[in-house]
Amino acid sequence: MSGQVTILIDGREVHAKEGRRLLPVALEAGFQIPHLCGVETSNLPWGGCRLCWVQVEGHDKPRCSCEVVVREGMRVTTRTAEVDRLVQSAFDMLISTHPLPCKGCPGHRHCALQDIARMRGLKLRHGRYPVVLHDWPVDESHPVIGLDPNRCILCGECIRVCRDEKGLDVLGFIGRGLEMHIGTFSNRPLGETRCNGCEKCVSVCPVKALYVRRPLPVHR
Q1: Do residues 48 and 155 make contact, with C-beta atoms less than 8 angstroms apart?
Q2: How many Cβ atoms are within 10 Å of 84's Cβ, its own excluded?
Q3: What are 41-83's pLDDT values in tens digits?
Q4: What is the pLDDT of residue 76?
Q5: I need a labelling partner for 61 at 20 to 30 A (CA). Which of 41, 68, 171, 215 fits?
Q6: Quick one: pLDDT at residue 129?
Q7: What does the alpha-carbon distance between residue 46 and residue 24 come to, in Å, rounded to a whole number?
Q8: Which among 55, 54, 56, 72 is positioned nearest to 18, based on CA atoms?
Q9: What is the greatest pairwise CA distance in the chain?
Q10: How confident is the model at residue 32 (pLDDT cuts 50, 70, 90)?
Q11: Within 10 A of 31 (CB to CB), how many other CB atoms are there?
């Protein structure tokens, strides 16, 4: 059985089980680290969003905390100028494929991008990277779940949970390069797949590109 290790995060001692990844350890200890990927639900880190940067002592460059395994005596800093630069760059790249402004979007006020922007003082606006928007058909063929690939930021979380947690492999990336978008294998309508309507993909989608086909409650 693995033992316990003690690490320092922003100068504060944190105890964790040996072998765990840094991101969930830091989040459970109350540190705010932006992330979109699953925290600790798969055997391997996904590393898809590239938002959870931290500086680990002994490393020249920041690292994504979801990919770091805690070890005894590790010293971590969650905010540096370089960490903030990398977070901003990754955030800007994600929203370059996402329609703005937020007002009027069905995901408004239920969006992880908005939460991260508030947490880190980031701007939800296009400009740093070329904006790539499409007009893909919205799929409402399934009785429970709708899919709007135009809002997708290609984080891959829905693919991961459908594959790793549910073992269904319903969802995948369709196309290549700037034409890549979320869809089903063979590009069939969602209602013609093995999707059982468990809503797990909906729960992890940060921008409600996947949604339950009924109104969501408003968080106040």
Answers
A1: yes
A2: 15
A3: 545 556 678 899 999 999 999 999 988 999 999 999 999 999 9
A4: 98
A5: 41
A6: 81
A7: 13
A8: 72
A9: 53
A10: very high
A11: 19
Amino acid at 119: M
pLDDT (tens digit, 9 = 90+) per residue, 115-139?
899 989 888 788 778 887 888 899 9
Q: Are 83 and 54 in contact (CB under 8 A)?
A: yes
- Among 96, 202, 192, 185, which residue's Cα sits nearest to residue 148? 202
The DSSP 8-state label assigned to residue 102 in this structure reads: -
Pair 201, 207: CB distance under 8 Å: no
Q: Which amino acid is at 220?
A: R
**How many Cα neighbours within 13 Å face the side chain of 44?**
6
Element (H, E) at 210: strand 210-212
Give me the mean pLDDT over the 152-178 stretch: 87
Sequence-distant (6+) residues with CB within 8 A of 27 are: 33, 35, 39
pTM score above 0.85: no
In the predicted model, is pLDDT for residue 214 greater than 70? no
- What does the angle CA 109 – CA 209 – CA 67 come to, to the nearest 5 degrees? 90
What residue spans of the chain are helical by DSSP H? 22-28, 81-95, 112-120, 157-160, 200-204
Query: What is the model's pLDDT at position 215?
Result: 53
Provide CB contacts within 8 A for 113, sequence distance 6+: 91, 94, 95, 98, 124, 153, 206, 207
